[in-house]
Amino acid sequence: MNKKALALLSGGLDSTVAIKVILEQGIDVTALNFVTPFCNCTSKSAGCKNEAAKVADELGIPIKIMAKGKDYLEVVRIPRFGYGKNMNPCIDCRIFMHKAAKKYMAETGASFIITGEVLGQRPMSQRRDTMNIIDRESGLQGLVLRPLSAQLFDPTLPEKEGIVDRQKLLRISGRSRKPQMKLARDYGIKDYHCPAGGCLLTDASFARRIKDVFDHSDEIDMRDIHLLRVGRHFRIDDNTKLVVGREEAENNKISIYTGDRYTLLESHDVPGPTGLLVGDGGAGSLGAAIKIVARYFKKDIAKKRIKVTHNGESEILDVSGSFDDETINSMLI
Fold first, then answer.
1. What angle do CA 13, 202, 103 make, to 5 degrees?
2. Mind listing the domains of the chain with CATH numbers?
């Protein structure tokens, strides 16, 4: 066993100080960051991967950015160890990342993994029993060192072999992050991103949206997953749903979607919302979608017209009739 470690780095407080603890012992650390469409730390100016890269640069360590792609979506769709309160498959998610990290260890020459996990901090994936499951299922038993809580666990192989000094590791537990914040101050770390972390799959509203996608789609398109973060979502029928922008920025994001499965609905002649019809619905679905989009025009517009674009071809349609609020709310996901 050598003095090289692979660190799972989110860019948040816990993983940052955990790496610093290990660097203080002269360990050669390489960081691995996973990009996911479900990170709710993402801002308009910088996403989680940008922050992780920034932290790695400040710590003076190399970093690999790895995307969770369609194979990860299948983990979310059917998690072996189930969901948390909403659609969060926390145990399966950790196993997925640890398996990927194990493969990357061979490329970096690392002999063990470090994480910022803290015993008892998260109710599903950071219990003693579930951490044992994660290590076993990923094939990393004895090789996952959790520096912030290490003294509360049995010694890992790098501790047993003297690669890491166990006495210099910590025994933090529970949900409070005050000990980590103190560590950050002691290390001179002043700017850390999204200290409590966050996953959209734990959000009840977002969970309803992704469950709707799983319930109505055999094949998952990553574009549809990214679309879940935008606008109001309506289920028109089993084959079709509608997304309506709530502001100009969302209208702009919606308007870039093109292809056979997408029909763009834009207010014509007057300012108004943009809608995106997703799926293979027929004329009835389009008619319903037009009425929903028109519902969000300004109320004083007498004649509402909508530009409908599909596969590059457009037509202008007058809006006739309307849905009441009860009907529209019944379609809202």
1. 60
2. 4-200 (3.40.50.620), 230-331 (no CATH)
Query: What does the CA dihedral 130, 134, 135, 140 come to, rounded to 10 degrees?
Result: 180
Residue 305, both tokens: 């017209």
For residues 15 and 192, give the distance between their C-alpha atoms in angstroms, rounded to a whole number.
Answer: 10
Ranges of the chain whose pLDDT falls below 50: 43-45
Taking the alpha carbons at both ends of the chain, their separation in whole angstroms is 52
Q: How far is CA 222 from CA 11, 69, 200, 234, in A?
A: 24, 8, 15, 19
Q: Could you give the CA distance from residue 77 to residue 86 in angstroms, rounded to a whole number? A: 12
Looking at residue 220, its pLDDT comes to 82
- What whole-number distance in Å separates Cα of residue 119 and Cα of residue 122? 8
Q: Tell me what pLDDT residue 42 has.
A: 52
Within a 13 Å sphere around the CA of 211, how many CA atoms are in the beta-carbon half? 14
Give pLDDT, residue 45: 45
Q: What is the pLDDT of residue 196?
A: 54
What's the confidence (pLDDT) of residue 280?
79
Contacts of 122 (CB under 8 A, 6+ apart): 90
Q: Which residues are registered as beta bridge partners of 8?
A: 32
Reported pTM? 0.90
What's the number of CA atoms in the CB half-sphere (13 Å) around residue 1? 16
Look at residue 44 in the predicted model and tell me its pLDDT. Answer: 43
Position 234: which residue type?
A: F
pLDDT at position 281 is 67
Q: How many Cβ atoms sit within 10 Å of the Cβ of residue 231? A: 21
E-strand ranges in 245-304 read 262-267, 274-279
